[in-house]
């Protein structure tokens, strides 16, 4: 890593620490997470680092993890929303006035970095493009592959409030009351059946 790069700060911390966070979480420097670091860094700067921002992310792949690692927004706390459009884009916005910025990986701009373009478009087999090469390309590109726009959030800004829970009379588990008289599984609309060999592990009532 070049020294000027290693002294760089992203998302409020030294780049080297950002990499450590990604590797601890993911096991390796996932390129999508590294690009995500630069996107979040840019979005944070545009929105204002002191602003309490919520996030909307436009793909289920990679980027939601970057948001959870480098902002306080998580799926669990409801501050991050995911739309399943497979666009490599995210928005951070001021939750009080809904003004924010959308940042995206600009495909036209990535053409200056053919390795990156080919990786994103899946034009090369993973084996022929070593991870280090790809990550170094991202590090030299930084914001040069990103575009952004100022936005006002019109949908998805409401935080999901946890509703009432009640106890299912069949399975005795707690569930969201709004879903019906018994839980979804006991209505026969669940996603599993119990395996025979495990069925007795369930505690007897
Ligand atoms: Zn039930």
Count of extended strands: 9
Percent of residues in helices: 25-40%
Mean pLDDT equals 91
* Structural domains: how many: 2
User: Would you identify the CATH architecture of the largest domain?
Assistant: 2-Layer Sandwich
Report the portion of residues in β strands: 15-25%
Ligands, deduplicated: zinc ion
Rg for CA atoms = 21 Å
The CATH class name of the largest domain reads: Alpha Beta
Structural class category: alpha+beta
Number of helices: 8
So what's the overall shape? globular
Distance between the termini: 60 Å
Low-confidence stretches: none
What does this structure look like?
There is one protein chain. By secondary structure, this protein is α+β, with helices and mostly antiparallel strands. The protein contains 8 helices and 9 strands. Helix 3 crosses helix 4. The longest helix has 17 residues, at about 30-45. It is globular and about 60 Å long. About 25% of the residues are buried. The structure holds zinc ion (ZN). Zinc ion binds near residues 168, 171, 183 and 185.
């Amino acid at each position: 890593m070049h020294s000027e790069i290693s002294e760089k700060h992203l998302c409020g911390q030294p780049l080297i620490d950002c990499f450590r966070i990604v590797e601890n979480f993911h096991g390796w420097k996932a390129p999508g997470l590294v690009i995500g670091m630069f996107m979040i860094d840019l979005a944070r700067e545009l929105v204002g680092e002191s602003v309490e921002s919520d996030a909307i992310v436009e793909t289920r792949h990679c980027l939601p993890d970057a948001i959870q690692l480098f902002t306080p927004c998580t799926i669990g706390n409801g501050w991050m929303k995911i739309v399943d459009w497979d666009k490599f884009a995210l928005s951070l916005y001021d939750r009080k006035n809904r003004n924010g910025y959308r940042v995206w990986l600009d495909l036209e701009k990535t053409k200056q970095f053919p390795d990156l373009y080919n990786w994103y478009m899946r034009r090369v087999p993973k084996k022929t493009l070593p991870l280090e090469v790809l990550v170094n390309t991202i590090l030299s590109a930084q914001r040069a592959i990103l575009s952004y726009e100022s936005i006002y959030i019109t949908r998805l800004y409401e935080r999901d409030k946890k509703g009432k829970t009640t106890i299912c009379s069949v399975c005795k588990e707690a569930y969201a009351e709004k879903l019906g008289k018994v839980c979804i599984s006991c209505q026969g609309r669940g996603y599993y059946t119990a395996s025979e060999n495990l069925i007795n592990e369930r505690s007897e009532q």
